[in-house]
C-alpha cells in the first residue's frame, strides 16, 4: 500500500444544491485551510510488506542486517509517496531529492532557504543549493543537443547528480571534455568533470532475462509483460531488434517487434501470439517477484535487476536522467545504477520493491569485479507506444453493491477529482461511511475520505493499494465529508459508489 496526501482545494462559492442520500446541502466550501508549514505535511501510513526475497537480496548485495533492510524499505516507501507532492509544492525552488545511507534518509534540495521548515516538517533533511533541478536539466539537455552533432568518444557518460547539485560528466580525456562543454554553451559552474575508465556497451550478445531470440540469432531479455488493447506482449531494449524482427521463446514462435528506438532512446515492444500470456511477475532466480505498478523511485533507492546470464542482483539508483554514449550513439534519459550486469542481460527487468522501474540498456564492468548498469525508464516506453503494464490484482472491489449514490468521471494520470460533484456532503448523525471506487484496468487509482475540522480538510480513511479499485469504510461522527479520487498512475474512467449514515 501507498498512502498519499491529497491537498485541499481552495474555497469555491458554488450556489447549486445537490442531494446525497436524501440530504440537501449547499455546495459553498468552508473556509480554506491554512497555508503554513503544517499544511505542507504529507501524511504517510505504514509501508506494505516487502515481496518475498527482497529483504534477503538487500542483505546479500548491500550488506545490510534484516532490521536495517526493513527500515530502508519503509523509508523508501515514505519518500516515494512524499516526493511528487513536495516537488509540486516547492515549484521552481525544487532542486531534487535522494536517499542517503544504509537506512535511506530522505534528503530534499531547494534553492530557497525559506523552504527548509516545510521540508523538515515532513521528516526529511533539507539542503539549500544554488541550482534548481530545472536549471540542471537545461544544462544536461544542452549537452544532449551537442552530442547529437558529435559526442566525444572519450566522454561516455553524463547525468544530473542532485546530491552534488551538478551535471557530472565522466571522461577518459578531461581536456577534450572541457572543450565539449564549452562548445555546448552551458554554465561551467554547473558542471563537474570526473576522470573515468568506464566504457558502456550494450548487453545483447547472449541470452537474457527470461530469454527470447530475435530472427533466430540474437538473444535478449523480456522486460515487463504488457497489453495494448487485447494484444499481449512485452517491453524490452530497443537495441535488441528493429520493427518487423521476429522473436522466439524456448524454441517456439513468439512474436514480432512493433516499435523500436535506438540510439537516442533504448526501448522497444514486442507483440506476442495467443500462445503467450502476460503475467505480472519478474524472475528472481529462483522464485518470482510480483509487479504491482510503475511508480518511479528516487535516487538512492534500492533496486534489483533480473537477467538469465547473471540472475538476480540488487544495488541502488545513482541518478536519473543520465546520458550515455555507446559506440552506436548517445542514449538520453537513462537511469544509472550500481547493479552489475553482463552481456545477455539486455532488455531485462529493473524493479524496486513491487514497482517496475525500467529495462536494461547497457553497462560497464561485470558481476565478478562489479560494475554499473543503465536502464530505460519503463513509464516512457508505456507512454510512447500506448501500452498498459501487466500488474497484479484488478478484480472489482467488494462492497460496491447497493450504494446510495454513484458518481463517475475521467482522469488523466496525476489528476484528481472531488466527489460529490466537486463539493462535499453533510451528515447529522454518527455511522458508517462507505466508498467504493472502480478504476480503469492497469491503472493505480486511489480514494481518500476527508472530514472538515473547522479550518482544514483532514484525511480520515484512505484506499491506496497499487490497484485501480479501492474500498473505504469509516465509522464517523456528524459533520462535513468529501471524497478525493486520485489517478496516481494511469488514466481513464472511474465510478464511485457512496453511502453515508
Automatic annotation (TrEMBL):
Which biological process, per GO, is one annotated for this protein?
proteolysis
Can the keyword Signal be found in this entry's annotation? yes
Q: Which GO terms describe its cellular component?
A: extracellular region
Occurrences of domain Peptidase S1A alpha-lytic prodomain (ranges): 131-187
Q: Which UniProt keywords apply?
A: Disulfide bond, Hydrolase, Protease, Serine protease, Signal, Zymogen
Q: Which InterPro entries match?
A: Pept_S1_alpha_lytic, Pept_S1A_streptogrisin, Peptidase_S1_PA, Peptidase_S1_PA_chymotrypsin, Streptogrisin_prodomain
The reply on keyword Protease is yes
Signal peptide boundaries: 1-26
GO function terms (MF aspect)? serine-type endopeptidase activity
Q: Which family does it belong to?
A: Belongs to the peptidase S1 family.
Name listed for the protein in its UniProt record: Serine protease
Source organism (scientific name):
Embleya scabrispora
UniProt lineage: Bacteria, Bacillati, Actinomycetota, Actinomycetes, Kitasatosporales
